[in-house]
Amino acid sequence: MTTPTEPRLTSLSHGGGCGCKIAPGVLSEILKGAAGLPLPKELLVGIETSDDAAVYRLNDQQALVATTDFFMPIVDDPHDFGRIAATNAISDVYAMGGKPILALALVGMPISVLSTATIGKILDGGASICREAGIPIAGGHTIDSVEPIYGLVALGLVHPDQVKRNADAQAGDVLVLGKALGVGVMSAALKKGQLSETMYRRMIETTTRLNTPGPELAALDGVHAITDVTGFGLAGHALEIARGSGCTVELDWAAVPLLEGVPALARDGFITGASGRNWAAYGADVAMSAALPSEAQALLSDPQTSGGLLVACAPSALAAVIDIFKRHGFEVATVVGRVSEASAGRKPLQVI
Q1: pLDDT tens digits for range 305-327
Q2: Which end of the chain is less enclosed by CB atoms within 10 A, N or C?
Q3: DSSP codes joined into one string, 213-275
């Protein structure tokens, strides 16, 4: 915990966790000029489909997975903040089918406001997750910052033939989600002092669980696409799959797992600003059934910090996919939708 003279970590940031992300529409505008840059043939995955990490072929047997992720506090406990940020950063390696090999720490702290003991606990939390993932923190960079910022550069290896992009889903695939939704809603309630201790523990449990099924899932022939659900919410990342694959994604809202207590919190108005920005950016591409509950839109666009893997696989591979998730402790993993052929006049994301 922080010392009595220190402010709450969340009070020092204008947004927490993956809710800090720049809205997808704004990000697209910022990056539009980068698409025309010359690319080496070894770059297997770049920015073209807003995928989870870059992938660079080293040789016929190995490709380097490279990613970075950092954000401001989503919780007040410094050790938990470090754990969540590290888990979230490493997740992008798993989402490409890679095995993490090392990390570099990215640290920006208001050193005139936070004690060195508090900052040390943040770094210790991140290091504990790296130890769990079996990788070292081999270096990094620190700055004196107005707001506290922590994250990692995460590097991994994957066989070039087992890279799983978010753009390779096929019509007829089913979609499996590995974690329940609702972290953004929980963080909004926490910031206002309205999250129970039981719900806080649920939030920490899901946000510090490494997405370790990724490499095994990528090795399955029937798995065509993988991404992780983070700051753009389930709808945003499902749309990335739909657009990148040239298909339509259909989500069955009743099948989507939600963290216990989250729907009630959403109905009570505990919704992040990022949720609204997400929906403003991509809501026009989402067709929503009139029968959906009132909180569905907010939860579809709810930014997930260290969210679950979203896997598109052939129906013949479904049993193996679920088995891998369960063996890694992801009991909530379930089918949440399907992929179908795109058709003129039909929005790329359908929520029924």
Answers
A1: 999 999 999 999 999 999 999 99
A2: N
A3: THHHHHT-TTEEEEEE--TTHHHHHHHHHHHHHTEEEEE-GGGS-B-TTHHHHHHTT---HHH
